[in-house]
Structure formats: structure tokens, C-alpha cells
Backbone:
């Protein structure tokens, strides 16, 4: 076997340029497979992060639309959702685990000689549980803050950096619409969302504080939206049905009237997006695999040419005692060496391409060990599959015919 390997390596080394060009197809194919799978995996992991950041088993409640003179207005223009509705859902809907109202106001934050524009979110402690928000320093809002409409705030890292610089913001006072608020905590960084929004550029205060001190809404008790969390994913439909029935009853809607609110199953929406991302990954990998298949055909073509060129060599080896299996192994080994060496170079090139995509295009990529193993295994399979026929053809030559070949 050692002699067979040495002969195969010597044969390939004798035709370095041809061997390199033959490997080029495998190199490009393996690199493309790894890079494309890395791009798809990166998109999938980013989508998983979005689902995680939004919270599990999530339903979004918003005011619906209404008609004015036969013209349908946009979402959020219908009957307001109030804190009384939120409390009723919390008390009467058994499929609902948590509900967090949200009131948004745009404001300029001011601290000493610095200022920063931001969307201030008014909510309750349930928001932190639903969206899995954790404090980096300080504490989060509690029920007492909401009950007293306390002037306290939890801020994201971006706000802390832009407004307070390197100093510790906890215990400091900032002004929101000229109302002083004490910073009681800074959230753990979350990064950008799938839509490119900075999730750390946020300020969360008690919902009652926003309604009484910051909001200019005609309905002081109204909320812009609410995050609803079911006990588990199997109870999502039940939670939607319970909330819908309760709100229709509270808003005195007859069976012939449309809902004055909208309920969106966010988990289902995000799962659909994640499924689309997985399909994209599979499609990218499949397209890249075609180039690997083309590389395998190139190996078969060169090996057939090599068999023809070395017919007399085959005849001499068989005449002095080489068996047909020895001839098959030699040519099969040459094909495998071409594909394996090309696969190794392709893996390195694919890793480099993945890093380049992340650094240059700012697109997240993730190279898994499975993707590398798949590419290496497929390149080995290509060498065996496309190298078998030339090796088998070489082993069928009769020594006397091979020796006569010119």
C-alpha cells in the first residue's frame, strides 16, 4: 500500500499544473458550500436571537382601525385599549401568563450639558419577564413603582453611554420633558434587532408615570399596545380566543361588528420567518453543491485522460505481477488525493470567505463543525464516486493490449 501511495503522489506531482487545475473545481465547490452554509446559519442564529429577545409565546395586542366616511383608517385608530382592559385580561384570561402594557412617548433626555433623543417606554415589571430583560447594574421596576407612579427609569447601554459617559448612571437624575427621573438600573446589552434597530437605545419607566406626567393623550388611561405571554406555545390559540372574547364583551361589540382591536401571534410570525431562513440556507447550500459536482466531473475527465496516457505503464505493471485490484486502488487513490487536498484548501478558503463576509458586508455568519464535516465528507465522496470509473476502466486493460499501445 505504501508503494501504491508513493506512486500515486509521484504521478500527481509530475503533472503539478494539471493537478492544481483539476483540484480547482473541488476547492471552489467546498469553499462555496462552507461560505453559503455559514451565511445561512448566521441568518438563522440572528433570527433565533430576535425570537429570544422578543420573548417566548408572544401575542401583541393593539387598538384596531375604524372607518371614517367609508375610508378605513390605519391600525391603532380604533377604540383605545385601557389599563382597565389590561387588568381584566390579567385577572380573567386563564391562558395568559403575563401581560405588559406599553405607552410610547418621544422625548429628549437631558443630563447636565448632554441630551439624547429617545422613545420612552412606559410599562410594568411584567415587560422584563416577557422580554427576558436583565439588569447589568442596579435594579428593575417593581409593582410599587407602578402603584406610586414613581419618577424612576431603567435605561439601555446606549443611553447610559451617550448621556452619562463613563460615569455610573445609577442614582443619577436626568430630565424627561423637564420632569426629573432617577436612574435605578442599566440593562444588559442586547445589540441590534433584525430590523437594524438598536435595542439598547431605550428608557423604561412605570406606565402610570408616563400616563400622568409625560403623555398628552386625550385618553389618559390608554395604552399604545400590550405584550401578552401565554403559558406555553400550545395555549397560544386559547389565549387569543380568551382575550378576543373578553375585549369584545368589554367594548360592547355585537356579533355583526368587527373587532376594535388586533391580536398578532408574534411567535408564529417569527417562526415563519425562521423557516424561510432555513429554506434559504438549504437553497444556498444546494446551489453551492452544484459547483462541487462540476469539480467531481473534472476529476473524472482528467483521470480518464490519465488512464489513456499511461496505458503502457499499466501494461508493464500488470505484466510484472500487478493485480487488477492494485491498478484500481492506484487510480482511485489518485482521484481521492485530488479531491481531499482540494477539499482541505477549500475549507480554509471557505472559512476566510465567511470572515470576509462578516467584516466587509457586516452580515452575520456562523461556521459549524457540521458544515466543515459535510464539505470534507462530500469532497471525499466526490473523489471515490468520480474516480471509480476511470480506475475500473484501467483495471480491465489486458497486459498484451496495453503493451502494444502507442
Residues:
Amino acid at each position: 500500500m505504501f508503494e501504491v501511495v508513493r506512486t500515486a503522489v509521484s504521478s500527481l506531482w509530475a503533472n503539478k499544473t494539471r493537478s492544481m487545475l483539476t483540484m480547482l473545481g473541488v476547492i471552489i465547490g467546498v469553499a462555496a458550500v462552507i461560505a453559503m452554509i455559514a451565511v445561512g446559519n448566521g441568518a438563522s442564529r440572528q433570527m433565533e436571537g430576535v425570537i429570544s429577545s422578543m420573548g417566548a409565546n408572544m401575542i401583541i395586542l393593539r387598538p384596531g382601525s375604524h372607518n371614517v366616511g367609508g375610508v378605513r383608517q390605519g391600525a391603532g385608530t380604533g377604540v383605545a385599549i385601557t389599563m382597565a382592559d389590561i387588568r381584566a385580561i390579567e385577572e380573567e384570561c386563564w391562558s395568559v401568563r403575563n401581560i405588559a402594557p406599553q405607552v410610547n412617548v418621544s422625548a429628549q433626555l437631558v443630563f447636565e450639558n448632554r441630551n439624547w433623543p429617545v422613545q420612552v417606554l412606559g410599562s410594568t415589571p411584567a415587560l422584563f419577564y416577557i422580554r427576558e430583560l436583565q439588569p447589568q447594574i442596579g435594579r428593575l421596576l417593581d409593582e410599587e413603582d407602578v402603584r406610586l407612579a414613581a419618577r424612576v427609569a431603567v435605561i439601555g447601554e446606549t443611553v447610559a453611554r451617550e448621556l452619562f459617559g463613563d460615569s455610573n448612571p445609577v442614582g443619577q437624575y436626568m430630565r424627561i420633558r423637564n420632569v426629573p427621573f432617577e436612574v435605578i438600573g442599566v440593562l444588559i446589552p442586547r445589540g441590534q434587532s433584525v430590523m437594524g434597530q438598536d435595542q439598547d437605545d431605550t428608557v423604561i419607566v412605570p406606565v402610570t408615570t408616563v400616563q400622568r406626567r409625560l403623555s398628552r393623550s386625550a385618553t389618559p388611561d390608554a395604552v399604545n399596545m400590550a405584550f401578552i405571554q401565554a403559558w406555553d406555545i400550545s395555549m397560544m390559540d386559547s389565549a387569543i380566543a380568551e382575550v378576543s372574547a373578553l375585549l369584545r364583551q368589554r367594548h360592547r361589540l355585537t356579533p355583526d361588528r368587527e373587532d376594535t382591536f388586533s391580536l398578532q401571534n408574534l411567535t408564529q410570525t417569527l417562526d415563519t420567518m425562521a423557516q424561510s431562513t432555513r429554506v434559504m440556507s438549504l437553497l444556498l447550500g444546494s446551489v453551492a453543491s452544484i459547483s462541487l459536482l462540476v469539480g467531481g466531473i473534472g476529476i473524472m475527465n482528467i483521470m480518464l485522460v490519465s488512464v489513456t496516457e499511461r496505458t503502457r505503464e499499466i501494461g508493464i505493471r500488470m505484466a510484472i505481477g500487478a493485480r487488477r485490484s492494485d491498478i484500481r486502488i492506484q487510480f482511485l487513490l489518485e482521484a481521492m488525493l485530488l479531491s481531499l487536498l482540494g477539499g482541505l484548501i477549500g475549507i480554509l478558503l471557505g472559512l476566510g470567505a465567511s470572515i470576509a463576509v462578516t467584516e466587509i458586508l457586516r452580515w452575520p455568519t456562523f461556521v459549524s463543525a457540521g458544515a466543515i464535516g459535510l464539505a470534507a465528507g462530500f469532497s471525499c465522496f466526490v473523489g471515490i464516486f468520480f474516480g471509480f470509473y476511470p480506475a475500473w476502466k484501467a483495471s480491465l486493460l489486458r497486459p498484451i493490449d496495453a503493451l502494444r499501445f502507442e
About this structure: Residues 32 and 107 are 48 Å apart (CA to CA).
